[in-house]
Task: structure prediction
Amino acid sequence: MILHEFSEPTPWLDSMVTAWESLGGPALQARGTFHVSLSGGSTPKPLYQRLAQLKWPWSATRLYLGDERWVTPDHKDSNYRMVNEAFHGTGVHIERVHSEIATAEVGARAYEKQIRTDLGDPPRFDLILLGIGDDGHTSSLFPETAALKEEKLLMAANFVPKLGVWRITSTYTLLRYARAIWFVTRGPSKEPYIRALAQDDPKATFPAAKVRSDRGTIEIYHCSQP
Ligand code: 6PG
Result:
């Protein structure tokens, strides 16, 4: 796994913006649309804000949420809210998880159906961005949760006992189909995980270490400065 490591944020962000352009250009040429699944949390927000300043064909780009907390879209914890704020003004389409309806199970099924409709079968995102939590989770694939074992579904409802909340998450199966996966991480708490990933440590058992790609690339963009 290729590790791009930076000691401060500007070159870290610059490198991802350049990589976004080198990935997105050919995708648009080949298929007319650039499909990207975004990670949530707080780390990626400055990247999304930087991308939003790009002169970019946003009308031919479609953004999805790789996972979502089961809260309303205006809730402070909503990943959709964070992404929508960051990309404000671009007019880009953000496929929202309808987390205000029914249950996470119903929401996961509806979101998977939308992904399959938009991207075909198997749905192959041009780029999937993932974070890594302080417990080694990625997307909402938390240690010792049911979704870790899900092989058939592409989006799964996942109860996270330690947080006492429901989420929906991309499954390892959906991640496998991606053309490119980036782990976007920042700060010392993520170091042990990115070292293990960069060394393809066979003993690594945390959820992010189980991410695989059938035919795509997996890279890490890490900024050591918190
Ligand atoms: C979420 C994310 C999650 C996140 C990690 C890291 O919904 O929380 O998708 O997987 O990427 O928790 O979060 P930070 O980057 O904010 O540390």
Remarks:
- Strands lie at 2-6, 34-38, 61-65, 67-69, 93-95, 127-130, 155-160, 165-170, 180-186, 217-223.
